[in-house]
Amino acid sequence: MAANNHFLLTLNRACAIGVLALALGAIHAAVVPLPFSAAEVVKPQPPAPPAPPLQGQTPTFNPPPPAPSAPGLLINLPQLQQLMAQEPVQFVDARSAADFATSSIPGAVHLSPDMFAGNLPPAALALDRSLPVVIYCSGGTCESSHLVAIRLGQLGLTRLHVYEDGFDGWRNAGLPIQSTPGVPQ
Amino acid sequence: MTPAGTLSFLLRLSLGGLLILSGSMKLGLFKALGINALAMDPLDFAFSIRAFQLGLPDTLIRVLTFAVPWGELLVGLLLVVGFWARGAGLAAAGLMLIFIVGIASLMLRDLDVNCPCFGKLKLFCGDAPMGTCHIIRNSAFAIAGLLIAILGPGPAALDRRVRPVPTRL
Fold first, then answer.
1. What is the pLDDT of residues A90-102, one digit of tens each?
2. Which candidate from A17, A32, A147 shows the least CB-CB separation from B87?
3. Do residue A143 and residue B51 have CB atoms under 8 angstroms apart?
4. Domain that holds residue A13
5. Share of chain A above pLDDT 70, in %
6. Which of A178, B114, B129, B157 could form a disulfide with B153 if both were Cys (CB 3.0 to 4.6 A apart)?
7. Taking Cα atoms as reference points, which of A97, A110, A103 lies closest to residue A181?
8. What pLDDT, on a 0 to 100 scale, did the predictor assign at position B89?
C-alpha cells in the first residue's frame, strides 16, 4: 500500500509539472504572438495616389485603367512565369545546403531557416528590396520557404512570394536548373 | 553513498543539464543573449511542430511551441536541484515518450523533418532528419528518467532536506 501511495505521489507530481508547463506555454504564447505566414509580417504597400492634373490642363473624366492584379504571397508556375516576364526576379532557395549544392534554380541564393538563427545572413541583406523575391523549397508540404518568407518579411522586404510547387515542380516542368559539377543528383 | 544513489545523482545532473539546455534554446534565451552558437528562435520550433502534419490548430501549435520548452526547463531544473526528483524523472520519461511516438509517426508516414532538438549543436544524431537515431536517443533519455523515478533522487538533493509529504491511506 505504501509503495502504491509513493507511486501515486510521483505520478501526481509529474502531472503537476506537465500542467504547469502547459500553463506557462499558454501565457507565453499569449504574450509573444508567433506569425505563421509572411502575410502576417509583410506590411502591404499603400496604392500610389493619383497624379494631380497639370495646371492649365483640362481634367479628363476617363475612368482610370484597371490596376494589374498583383500576385499574392503564394504563387504557382504560371504566375511565376508571368512575374518573370515583367521584371527580374530574385530566387531564394530555402532547402538544405546539401540540396542547394546539388542543384537549384539558376541565379538562386541559398537562405535556409537555420541561417537566421544567429547573425543575419549577408545574402538576405543583399536582396534588392525593389524587385520581387521568390522563395522556394522542395515543393508539396515543405515549410521552410514559408519560414524564410516570414524572416525576410521581418527584415522589411515586402515583395515576397512563395513558389508553392517548389524546386520539384520547377524541374518537373522541364525548366532549366543549375547543377554543381561532380555532385550526384 | 550507495551505487544506486550515485547512479541516480549522475543521471539527474546529466539529463537535467541536457533538458535545461534544450528548453533554453527553444525558448530563444541564447538568441536573446547573443550567443550565436546556441541561438534558436521559437518560430523555428513552431514550424517543426507544424511539419509533423498532425492537423493541430495553429493556436495549439503556438501553445505547444512554448509549453514543450517550458516543460523541459522545469523538469531539468527540478532534476538538477533534486526537488520532486522522482516526479520530474517520470515527467521527463513521459515527455520523451511523446517525442518517440511523434518521430515514429513521421517515419511511418515517410516524412522528412529536421530535428530542432538541440538547435545548431545537433547533439548525438547530427543533421539527419528525425528517425531511428532520434528514437534511440530519446529512449535512452526516457530510461534515465524512469531510473530516477525508481531509484529516487540520490545525494545532494533538495528532496532530502524537505520533510516528506505525509500520505493518507
1. 999 999 888 899 9
2. A17
3. yes
4. 1-33
5. 81
6. B157
7. A103
8. 96
Residue B167, domain member (yes or no):
no
Q: Does residue A51 sit within a domain?
A: no
Q: Which residue has the cell 515583395?
A: A159
Range among A100-109, B66-75, B160-169 rated most confident: B66-75
User: What domain range is B56 assigned to?
Assistant: 3-157
Residue A69 has pLDDT above 80, yes or no: no
User: What chain B residue is nearest to A150 in terms of C-alpha separation?
Assistant: B43
CA distance B70 to chain A (A): 5
Which of A14, A25, A119 lies nearest to residue B67, judging by beta carbons? Answer: A25
List helix spans (H) across B27-130: 29-33, 42-51, 58-81, 85-108
pLDDT per residue as tens digits for the range B34-81: 888 888 889 888 988 888 888 899 899 999 999 999 999 999 999 999
> What's the whole-model pTM score?
0.79
On whether residue B153 sits in a domain, the answer given is: yes
- The whole-number pLDDT of residue B169 equals 44
Q: Give the distance from CA A48 to its chain's centroid.
A: 25
Number of domains in chain B: 1
CA distance A137 to A99: 10
Is A63 a member of any domain?
no
For residue B164, is it within any domain?
A: no
Residue of A nearest to B75 (CA): A17
Q: Are residues A160 and A86 in the same domain?
A: yes
Write the ipTM.
Answer: 0.89
Spatial separation of the C-alpha atoms in residues B67 and B96, rounded to whole Å? 14
- Contact by Cβ (8 Å): A149, A127: no
Residue A20 with chain B: CB contacts under 8 Å: 70, 74
Task: List chain B residues with CB under 8 Å of A113.
Answer: 44, 47
Report if residue B14 sits inside a domain.
yes
- Comparing CB atoms, the residue among A11, A14, A117 nearest residue B40 is A117
Count of domains forming chain A: 2
CB distance A74 to A166 below 8 Å:
no
Q: Which residue has the higher pLDDT, B33 or B63?
A: B63
E strand or H helix at A178, and its extent?
A: strand A178-179
CB A44 within 8 A of CB B85: no
Minimal CA separation from A82 to chain B, in Å = 30
